[in-house]
Write a structure and sequence with these properties.
Elements (H helix, E strand, L loop, with lengths): L7 E11 L11 E3 L4 E6 L2 E6 L23 H14 L8 E12 L5 E4 L7 E4 L5 H18 L22 H13 L23 H6 L2 E6 L2 E7 L25 H8 L9 H13 L2 E4 L4 E6 L3 H8 L11 E7 L5 E9 L17 E6 L4 H15 L4 E4 L4 E7 L3 H6 L16 E6 L2 E6 L8 E7 L3 H12 L5 E3 L1 H11 L34 H10 L4 H16 L1 H7 L5
Parallel strand pairs: 10-20
Antiparallel strand pairs: 1-4, 1-5, 2-3, 3-4, 6-7, 8-9, 10-16, 11-14, 11-15, 12-13, 13-14, 16-19, 17-18, 18-19
Length: about 575
């Protein structure tokens, strides 16, 4: 009706209610994660349901089905009966009083779809509740109402925000079906820190994908992209087509090396290959490492009002000379951080895409974490529209690759590959320029997200492999290695760099997050969220009553330090 993608799929979902069970009245609700089954008290009986590995998709949704039910398919549901009997043996001798089997909508990550649709301003979603509508409905309804009225929710709702998915995925039926199935089947599985989906992989691949896979890259999936996680020393581990965990007579992927590697990650301790990631970190710290960061969002902001838009959108002062690059945040009206990114001011020039857009005035190049690119795109477009700025946002993410060469040996290495002087005087930190790399034009930026000296190379797609091979050949004598995002995460944490949405969320302000240095508060330039930051700075990061309570705690601690030390509460 409105051209809005709603990435959900309908499945049959069921539970049964047992006959009366004597003495059941005070039993707690039970969830058996191994059997993927739940037992919920319902008066003097139990309702039993779960999440099977072979749910029935509702292929043909009828307009005349409203408030109707399906017949229960016992061949599918019996696995839940078996699991419930294993947990509560008395059920084996208990009859079934009633069955309920109806349609329910499920999503790719088993979380609701909420918020303003990227395709149409003012069109809000509140759907895809994955059989948890009664549990989530009250809170989500309250947040959605606030969202509609005020333009954003009160709480951090990014995990439910439709903009967490890239627009190239939300109308892809294969992705919706496969990923929703896997999320359904694994709903009761333990969530380990480094698990990755097996469904709908290889949706978006950068130009380096094949050559990195041949070198043992273990990929992570973010926003549909395959990005390097770490590099396995036992050879390639390609990702295969989804086998639906052998449901629906789909042949199981046997001898699936990538799946076996993930299985070794199913721990809350260090995985057995942690030493490999350690070595990637140490190589970056002591020599030089190359990171493929091609999944980053790469946008150009151009047009007559580009400067006005940049001043309003970005917390940092971007009124620098062309060739400068600035780390900045974007805020909402309440001063919360909607994004952190780098913005580079470009020289006016004719178009030489994808490296330079056509511009007669101000133009900016935005490099944004790839996992939140859709969120950033939608936020910028909404602000441009709300403010009436006459400018254009152009997405060239798919047209360029990006490698980051980091470490104390990076300058010596790149000086052999690039035709530009890389000394600190000629190429200072937070600057960029178009240079030649192995005969190919690239945009080089002196930046780091790992705390070491290094450069990013933003490369037109067709030039990616020649430039990569030149870097690796020149780096051999310096001990260069490929490294992935597991190493980036470790190194950036050591450096104290923030990751949006892990360390930094829309309900955190730059003042609270230690990012006040990104805000042009000493200038008179207005920007989105400035008034909220000024009010917070005037009041203090803690409200007055909390400051009084905090001061009391400090005073009591000082007065009673001996008592506290003896009690072992503080270790000095």
């Amino acid at each position: 009706m409105a051209g809005v993608n709603v990435p959900l799929i309908a499945m049959h979902h069921a539970y049964v209610v047992t006959e009366r069970i004597e003495g059941i009245q005070n039993m707690p609700n039970v969830r058996d994660h191994d059997a993927s089954v739940y037992l919920r008290l319902q008066g003097d009986a139990l309702s039993v349901g779960g999440y099977e590995h072979n749910p029935i998709f509702w292929e043909d949704v009828s307009d005349r089905f409203a408030f109707s039910l399906f017949d229960l398919d016992w061949d599918v549901f019996m696995q839940h009966i078996d699991g419930a009997v294993n947990r509560v043996p008395a059920l084996e001798q208990t009859g079934i009083k009633s069955t309920v089997c109806g349609p329910e909508s499920f999503t790719a990550d088993h979380k609701p779809l909420m918020g303003e649709a990227p395709e149409v301003r003012g069109f809000f979603l509140g759907c895809g509740f994955n059989s948890a509508g009664m549990m989530l409905g009250g809170g989500c309804g309250k947040e959605l109402a606030h969202w509609i009225i005020h333009g954003r929710p009160e709480k951090d709702m990014y995990g439910y925000d439709i903009r967490r998915f890239h627009h190239s995925l939300t109308n892809n039926n294969r992705w919706i079906r496969e990923r929703s199935h896997e999320s359904y089947a694994k709903n009761y599985s333990v969530v380990f820190p480094f698990d990755e989906p097996l469904a709908s992989r290889n949706m978006r691949k950068d130009p380096f994908h094949q050559v990195l896979q041949e070198q043992g890259c273990v990929f992570q999936e973010r926003h549909g992209w395959e990005r390097p996680g770490w590099f396995n020393r036992d050879g390639p581990a390609p990702i295969l087509d989804y086998d639906y965990y052998s449901a629906y007579d789909v042949p199981k992927n046997n001898d699936y090396k990538y799946s076996e590697i993930l299985g070794k990650e199913y721990t809350f301790d260090f995985p057995p290959h942690h030493y490999v990631i350690r070595d990637e970190c140490l190589t970056c710290r002591n020599a030089v490492a190359v990171f493929d960061m091609s999944y980053f969002g790469k946008f150009y902001l151009t047009g007559p009002d580009a400067k006005k838009a940049a001043d309003w959108l970005f917390t940092a002062d971007v009124n620098k000379a062309p060739g400068s690059t600035v780390y900045t945040c974007m805020l909402n009206k309440r001063g919360g951080v909607e994004s952190d990114l780098t913005i580079s001011r470009l020289e006016p020039s004719p178009a030489h895409l994808p490296l330079t857009p056509e511009s007669n005035g101000e133009a900016y190049y935005l490099a944004i974490g790839g996992g939140v690119a859709q969120h950033n795109w939608s936020h910028i477009q909404a602000v441009l529209q709300d403010q009436g700025f006459c400018c254009t946002l152009i997405d060239h993410t798919e047209d360029m690759g990006m490698i980051s060469i980091q470490g104390p040996k990076s300058r010596e290495l790149l000086q052999e590959v690039l035709d530009s002087d890389l000394s600190s005087d000629a190429f200072p930190f937070s600057t960029h320029k178009i240079v030649n790399a192995a005969g190919h034009k690239v945009r080089a930026m002196r930046l780091s997200f790992v705390g070491e000296m290094g450069w990013e190379l933003h490369i037109p797609k067709e030039s990616c492999l020649p430039v990569y091979h030149a870097v690796m050949a020149a780096g051999a004598k310096y001990g260069i290695c490929n490294a992935g995002y597991r190493a980036i995460d470790s190194l950036s944490i050591e450096k104290g760099y923030r990751h949006w949405h892990a360390d930094l969320r829309p309900d955190d302000t730059p003042l609270e997050a230690g990012l006040a240095f990104t805000c042009k508060m000493k200038t008179s330039i207005p920007f989105l969220g400035r008034k909220a930051l000024e009010a917070q700075k005037a009041e203090g990061l803690l409200p007055a009553h909390q400051r009084r309570d905090f001061n009391k705690i400090i005073l009591l601690t000082v007065k009673n330090v001996d008592v506290i030390k003896k009690a072992g509460i503080l270790r000095w």
